[in-house]
């Protein structure tokens, strides 16, 4: 019964997203891309894919990896905004939730820029288009967290997430910003998870919980590892940064927050089958991307689920990263690493 | 070259001065030559090291650029901006000191990392922090190579200049100063010889004159004596005792002739 009324609101969206999913590059196309000798060849190869002639207005001399990345990302944003505009009700809320993550990044970026008295226009340029909100440019007035919250953020969807950040960070500095960003992200993930649990129907609920849990785990492991060299973060603070989500929660999360060396992190991860052995070999980030892509691929196997939008988003982002990576390898002539991309479709 | 010489009076004193100068020039020449050789050796060494450093830099820079690509793959676009903004103090610093190579001061740059300063250790906390740290390390190495190269390049330029100057000096001494001094010495010697020859000739002439005079006096004396003998003969007929006196008068005349003889030998010597 659960899928019975799905198509009334979401049928079109799901159709579009599945169409987009079929446009994702396949492993054969990736192999073709890696054979390219120059960026011009790459452009030619990409023109036969779903990207079409997205680089046609760029001349050969101006063709750089960053331009390829930018243009490919723009295509993703366009497609996402199209879907967002077609949605209504809870689905729209769900799509909005996806953008909150980018909003957090933008807020952190704006605050960083403000502290160092950068030009507003310069920072706004760098903000993520999906995380844009109307009051974003006015963030520059804030000098401490209270005023930041009271003047600007109270009207944004991020307001509830700031609740946990008020205990001590009165003055904004670089350490605080990084901590605030991670606290916000934690609150966001948990709120998103709650929203999915309460509002979204099965089977999307289950899939989204899995995906968000993975997202939380990824952040936990990364924070645990990256904070090892830094003495500014003690176990309690670290615990506050780790999301209460995913397969690591609660036992391994607790262990992670108390881990003081690499061995401790590995011990904590050894209890979770999914992440066991992740630190043994290769690049951690690659492992995560690989795992994420597997999860996203699996997400498409369920019919009547708006979680496909999230899965498609993430797949597409990975695809842009892959293309950028391949382009970078071609541009820098580092052929031996070119096969480091992640392709699951 | 052989025509040039210094404008000096050809005296024995100048000759002495010139001889000292030549000696000094020779010594200076050998010293400068040795300096130039030492510098050239150093210069070659530095050239070789620059070559190595440049090739190393090519490799290191490539890895560095690639590690940046890895960072952007792992973290997304804005990481560069975050890093830029969170850096307050320089972690990697350069110290300069001087090294003395054959009297030339070459600046040497030494790089060192201040482990106290670690400004962006939290960047990428949630994602890609390891890549950021790795890129940081690789870039530190790249900058280290750059500093090394900078120090070598500066030494290269300074040494090049100094070697040029030294070589110019060596050549000037070898091809200008030494030949000129030698020419001057030769000139002074020839002038002095000329003077000697003139003197010799003059003395010869004097002696000749003196001999002529002596001969003339001898002749006169002879005539006189003859005349006197004639007279004495005539007088002997008158008086026997006058003969003794004539003999006494002729003896000082003989002594002068011996004196001239001695003098002549001296001149020939």
Automatic annotation (TrEMBL), chain A:
<dbReference type="GO" id="GO:0046961">
    <property type="term" value="F:proton-transporting ATPase activity, rotational mechanism"/>
</dbReference>
<dbReference type="InterPro" id="IPR035067">
    <property type="entry name" value="V-type_ATPase_csu/dsu"/>
</dbReference>
<dbReference type="GO" id="GO:0000220">
    <property type="term" value="C:vacuolar proton-transporting V-type ATPase, V0 domain"/>
</dbReference>
<comment type="function">
    <text>Subunit of the V0 complex of vacuolar(H+)-ATPase (V-ATPase), a multisubunit enzyme composed of a peripheral complex (V1) that hydrolyzes ATP and a membrane integral complex (V0) that translocates protons. V-ATPase is responsible for acidifying and maintaining the pH of intracellular compartments. This subunit is a non-integral membrane component of the membrane pore domain and is required for proper assembly of the V0 sector. Might be involved in the regulated assembly of V1 subunits onto the membrane sector or alternatively may prevent the passage of protons through V0 pores.</text>
</comment>
<dbReference type="InterPro" id="IPR002843">
    <property type="entry name" value="ATPase_V0-cplx_csu/dsu"/>
</dbReference>
<dbReference type="InterPro" id="IPR044911">
    <property type="entry name" value="V-type_ATPase_csu/dsu_dom_3"/>
</dbReference>
<dbReference type="GO" id="GO:0007034">
    <property type="term" value="P:vacuolar transport"/>
</dbReference>
<keyword id="KW-0375">Hydrogen ion transport</keyword>
<comment type="similarity">
    <text>Belongs to the V-ATPase V0D/AC39 subunit family.</text>
</comment>
<dbReference type="GO" id="GO:0000329">
    <property type="term" value="C:fungal-type vacuole membrane"/>
</dbReference>
<comment type="subunit">
    <text>V-ATPase is a heteromultimeric enzyme composed of a peripheral catalytic V1 complex (components A to H) attached to an integral membrane V0 proton pore complex (components: a, c, c', c'', d, e, f and VOA1).</text>
</comment>
<keyword id="KW-0813">Transport</keyword>
<dbReference type="InterPro" id="IPR036079">
    <property type="entry name" value="ATPase_csu/dsu_sf"/>
</dbReference>
<comment type="subunit">
    <text>V-ATPase is a heteromultimeric enzyme made up of two complexes: the ATP-hydrolytic V1 complex and the proton translocation V0 complex.</text>
</comment>
<keyword id="KW-0406">Ion transport</keyword>
<protein>
    <recommendedName>
        <fullName>V-type proton ATPase subunit</fullName>
    </recommendedName>
</protein>
<dbReference type="Pfam" id="PF01992">
    <property type="entry name" value="vATP-synt_AC39"/>
</dbReference>
<dbReference type="InterPro" id="IPR016727">
    <property type="entry name" value="ATPase_V0-cplx_dsu"/>
</dbReference>
UniProtKB/TrEMBL annotation, chain B:
<feature type="region of interest" description="Disordered">
    <location>
        <begin position="227"/>
        <end position="269"/>
    </location>
</feature>
<keyword id="KW-0926">Vacuole</keyword>
<protein>
    <recommendedName>
        <fullName>V-type proton ATPase subunit D</fullName>
    </recommendedName>
</protein>
<dbReference type="GO" id="GO:0045121">
    <property type="term" value="C:membrane raft"/>
</dbReference>
<dbReference type="GO" id="GO:0000221">
    <property type="term" value="C:vacuolar proton-transporting V-type ATPase, V1 domain"/>
</dbReference>
<feature type="compositionally biased region" description="Basic and acidic residues">
    <location>
        <begin position="227"/>
        <end position="236"/>
    </location>
</feature>
<comment type="function">
    <text>Subunit of the V1 complex of vacuolar(H+)-ATPase (V-ATPase), a multisubunit enzyme composed of a peripheral complex (V1) that hydrolyzes ATP and a membrane integral complex (V0) that translocates protons. V-ATPase is responsible for acidifying and maintaining the pH of intracellular compartments.</text>
</comment>
<comment type="similarity">
    <text>Belongs to the V-ATPase D subunit family.</text>
</comment>
<keyword id="KW-0813">Transport</keyword>
<dbReference type="GO" id="GO:0000329">
    <property type="term" value="C:fungal-type vacuole membrane"/>
</dbReference>
<keyword id="KW-0406">Ion transport</keyword>
<dbReference type="GO" id="GO:0046961">
    <property type="term" value="F:proton-transporting ATPase activity, rotational mechanism"/>
</dbReference>
<dbReference type="Pfam" id="PF01813">
    <property type="entry name" value="ATP-synt_D"/>
</dbReference>
<feature type="compositionally biased region" description="Basic and acidic residues">
    <location>
        <begin position="244"/>
        <end position="256"/>
    </location>
</feature>
<keyword id="KW-0375">Hydrogen ion transport</keyword>
<dbReference type="InterPro" id="IPR002699">
    <property type="entry name" value="V_ATPase_D"/>
</dbReference>
<keyword id="KW-0472">Membrane</keyword>
<dbReference type="GO" id="GO:0007035">
    <property type="term" value="P:vacuolar acidification"/>
</dbReference>
């Amino acid at each position: 019964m659960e899928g019975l009324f799905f198509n009334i609101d979401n049928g079109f969206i799901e159709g579009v997203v599945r169409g987009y999913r079929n446009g994702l590059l396949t492993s054969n196309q990736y192999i073709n891309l890696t054979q390219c000798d120059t960026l011009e060849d790459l452009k030619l190869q990409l023109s036969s894919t779903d990207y079409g002639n997205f680089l046609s207005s760029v001349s050969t001399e101006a063709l750089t990896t960053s331009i390829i990345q930018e243009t490919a990302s723009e295509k993703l944003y366009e497609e996402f905004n199209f879907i967002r505009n077609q949605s209504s009700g809870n689905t729209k809320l769900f799509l909005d939730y996806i953008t909150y993550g980018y909003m957090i990044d933008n807020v952190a970026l704006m605050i960083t820029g403000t502290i160092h008295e950068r030009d507003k226009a310069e920072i706004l340029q760098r903000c993520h288009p999906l995380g844009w909100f109307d009051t974003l440019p006015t963030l520059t007035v804030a000098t401490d967290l209270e005023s930041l919250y009271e003047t600007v953020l109270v009207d944004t969807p991020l307001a509830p997430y700031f609740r946990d950040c008020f205990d001590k960070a009165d003055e904004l500095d670089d350490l605080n910003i990084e901590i605030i960003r991670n606290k916000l992200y934690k609150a966001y993930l948990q709120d998103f998870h709650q929203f999915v649990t309460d509002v979204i129907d099965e089977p999307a609920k289950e899939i989204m919980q899995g995906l968000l849990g993975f997202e939380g785990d990824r952040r936990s492991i990364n924070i645990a590892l990256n904070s090892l060299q830094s003495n500014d973060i003690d176990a309690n603070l670290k615990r506050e940064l780790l999301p209460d989500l995913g397969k690591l929660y609660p036992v391994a999360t607790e262990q992670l927050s108390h881990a003081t060396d690499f061995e401790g992190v590995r011990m904590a991860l050894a209890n979770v089958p999914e992440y066991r052995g992740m630190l043994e070999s290769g690049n951690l980030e690659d492992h995560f991307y690989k795992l994420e892509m597997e999860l996203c691929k699996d997400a498409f196997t369920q019919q009547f689920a708006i979680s496909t939008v999230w899965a498609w988003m993430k797949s597409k982002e990975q695809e842009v990263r892959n293309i950028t990576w391949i382009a970078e390898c071609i541009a820098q002539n580092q052929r031996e690493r070119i096969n480091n991309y992640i392709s699951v479709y | 070259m052989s025509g040039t010489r210094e404008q000096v009076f050809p005296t024995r004193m100048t000759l002495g001065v010139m001889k000292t100068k030549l000696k000094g020039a020779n010594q200076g020449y050998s010293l400068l030559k040795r300096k130039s050789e030492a510098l050239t050796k150093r210069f070659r060494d530095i050239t070789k090291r620059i070559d190595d450093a440049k090739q190393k830099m090519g490799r290191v820079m490539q890895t560095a650029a690639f590690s940046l690509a890895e960072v952007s793959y792992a973290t997304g676009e804005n990481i560069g901006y975050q890093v830029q903004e969170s850096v307050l103090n320089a972690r990697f610093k350069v110290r300069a000191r001087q090294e003395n190579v054959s009297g030339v001061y070459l600046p040497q740059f030494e790089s060192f990392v201040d482990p106290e300063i670690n400004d962006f250790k939290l960047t990428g906390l949630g994602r890609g922090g390891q890549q950021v740290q790795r890129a940081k390390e690789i870039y530190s190495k790249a900058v280290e190579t750059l500093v090394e190269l900078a120090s070598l390049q500066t030494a290269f330029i300074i040494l090049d200049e100094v070697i040029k100057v030294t070589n110019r000096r060596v050549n000037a001494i070898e091809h200008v100063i030494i030949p000129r001094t030698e020419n001057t010495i030769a000139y002074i010697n020839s002038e002095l010889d000329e003077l000697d020859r003139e003197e010799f000739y003059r003395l010869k002439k004097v002696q000749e004159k003196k001999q002529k005079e002596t001969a003339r006096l001898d002749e006169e004396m002879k005539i006189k004596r003859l005349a006197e003998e004639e007279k004495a003969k005539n007088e002997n007929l008158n008086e026997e005792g006058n003969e003794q006196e004539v003999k006494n008068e002729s003896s000082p005349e003989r002594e002068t002739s011996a004196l001239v003889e001695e003098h002549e030998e001296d001149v020939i010597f």
